[in-house]
Amino acid sequence: MANLQVEGVSPSPSPQLSRKAKVMITTDFMKKDTDVEEDLEDNRKKLDSSLVEHTSMMKGAIPVLPIVLAYFCLICNLLIPGLGTVLSGMFCVCFGIPRFGVYDGAKHRIGSLVINLVVGCGQLFTVLFCLVGWGWSIWWGVIMLKISRKYRKLKAEEAAAEAEAAPPVTANNHTRA
């Protein structure tokens, strides 16, 4: 069995000293684990809090998509009710960001896919009731488009703020005061 030397603690048959050494080692490992967890939290993709949907899981499943995909989903919803909604769920897995919370994750993406599949099927089957599903489908596509435009606007404002904060660079890469 390997002997463990801790500074300030000499090996002794006393059970108290061995407990202290174990506590010191355990807290050191725990500290390293929490540091790693904090670093992981900072690197996750973060969504602006104004885009997060707090009132409904179903509305939260409407993803933030690139503007071109949002238009595509709206057109698909116009042609075949529910098709654009189902496609938006699939696009969310690869390109989009679900709006369940500020941070993006695999559970949120899969949840958005499942909810959009259910909603898309609901939109398709409720077309039989006086075209309710078609209106619902178009409304869903318009919401996707509004969210995408808002996200694009927020990103443009963020990029403009970063450009203002950066120091000016001259032709020879030296700043002059």
From TrEMBL:
GO terms for biological process: proprioception; sensory perception of mechanical stimulus; taxis. It is found in: Membrane. The keyword Transmembrane applies. It is a multi-pass membrane protein. Its main location: membrane. Keywords: Membrane, Transmembrane, Transmembrane helix. This is Protein SPEC3. The chain crosses the membrane at residues 60-80, 124-145.
